[in-house]
Automatic annotation (TrEMBL):
This is Abasic site processing protein HMCES. Gene3D superfamilies: SOS response associated peptidase-like (3.90.1680.10). Residues 292-354 are annotated as: Disordered. GO terms for cellular component: replication fork. It is an enzyme of class 3 (hydrolase). Its main location: nucleus. Interacts (via PIP-box motif) with PCNA. It is found in: Chromosome. Residues 296-309, 337-348 have a biased composition (Basic and acidic residues). GO terms for biological process: double-strand break repair via alternative nonhomologous end joining; interstrand cross-link repair; positive regulation of isotype switching; protein-DNA covalent cross-linking repair; proteolysis; somatic hypermutation of immunoglobulin genes.
Length: 354
């Protein structure tokens, strides 16, 4: 399943991270719809707004279906046929949609039949592993493996159009398959766009954490086919929905358990072998300071804050006796990338404010 995500990039940086090629092979950036509704956060939960990609054809009748829009949508699909005036009165959970019953449930079958496919964007998602013999649960942060390339390190100014056109070559966003719908209040008012994340059986690498995972679209081709409902049929698109092993993860602290906590500590790795939070090393402190420069637009004033020296260190991330595969290299690249971004201090990494 998927019940918590992180998407903390400022709006302009998120836009560049979603650069793509249209049907003519032209490099493009997606355009925003309702950009003011996007609030970056390290700890997004259902009923909050999250950014999703979708085809421009959903909004413009004569548009090219390969062109993309980014729109903040409510997490938790509200069916178009829902008759109550308050979406919170929906009697069933639509945060996730099981791939094996997607064509059986009206709430998902109807919008899918209309081509209402979207891609949910995130840094990664959180999942909780039940600890044997106790009722405690250990949270993990799960994301795409990050590969450092020759071009990494050149982000450019986010407010410079010529730099916007460059191919994004930094943090790779997690792209999850979703379905969205449009609900109109029976008494009139603004249309509510909302979505659900499709889930599948977990891949082998994640099965010891949880038996379900989001349907992850791994690569530009998969993302394009899922979004392009004008050219790709529902039957063909559903062939993209399956588990992927191209995923990595690390343990995080229980700070993320409370959805009101919205700080970089939510996704900072902890060492489970030591079983306590370690004092941050110098490089860890610089990385966490960089994350702090990109704090979300709206942060709960009551969110508990810890002194910097109490924030857990980026270190080895897996249980000492866990059968899960060890993937330390990716965590190392993650730390290097974050550290480098802080040292460069580009304009794009400053806090977003309207």
């Amino acid at each position: 399943m998927c019940g918590r995500t992180s998407c903390h990039l400022p709006r302009d940086v998120l836009t560049r991270a979603c650069a793509y090629q249209d049907r003519r092979g032209q490099q493009r950036l997606p355009e925003w719809r309702d950009p003011d509704k996007y609030c970056p956060s390290y700890n997004k939960s259902p009923q909050s707004n999250s950014p999703v990609l979708l085809s421009r054809l959903h909004f413009e009748k004569d548009a090219d279906s390969s062109e993309r829009i980014i729109a903040p949508m409510r997490w938790g699909l509200v069916p178009s046929w829902f008759k109550e005036s308050d979406p919170s009165k929906l009697q069933f959970n639509t945060t996730n949609c099981r791939s094996d019953t997607i064509m059986e449930k009206r709430s998902f079958k109807v919008p899918l039949g209309k081509g209402r496919r979207c891609v949910v964007l995130a840094d990664g998602f959180y999942e909780w592993q039940r600890c044997q013999g106790t009722n405690q649960r250990q949270p993990y942060f799960i994301y795409f493996p990050q590969i450092k390339t020759e071009k990494s390190g050149s982000t450019g100014a986010a407010d410079s159009p010529e730099n916007w056109e460059k191919v994004w070559d930094n943090w790779r966003l997690l792209t999850m398959a979703g379905i969205f719908d449009c609900w109109e209040p029976p008494e009139g008012g603004d249309v509510l766009y909302s979505y659900t994340i499709i889930t599948v059986d977990s891949c082998k690498g994640l099965s010891d954490i949880h038996h379900r995972m989001p349907a992850i679209l791994d690569g530009e081709e998969a993302v394009s086919k899922w979004l392009d409902f004008g050219e790709v049929s529902t039957q063909e698109a559903l062939k993209l929905i399956h588990p992927t092993e191209n995923i990595t993860f690390h343990a995080v602290s229980s700070v993320v358990n409370n959805s009101r906590n919205n700080t970089p500590e939510c996704l900072a790795p902890v060492d489970l072998v030591v079983k306590k939070e370690l004092k941050a090393s110098g490089s860890s402190q610089r990385m966490l300071q960089w994350l702090a420069t990109k704090s979300p637009k709206k942060e709960d004033s009551k969110t508990p804050q810890k002194e910097e020296s109490d924030v857990p260190q980026w270190s080895s991330q897996f249980l000492q006796k866990s059968p899960l595969p060890t993937k330390r290299g990716t965590a190392g690249l993650l730390e290097q990338w974050l550290k480098r971004e802080k040292e460069e201090e580009p304009v794009a990494k400053r806090p977003y404010s309207q």
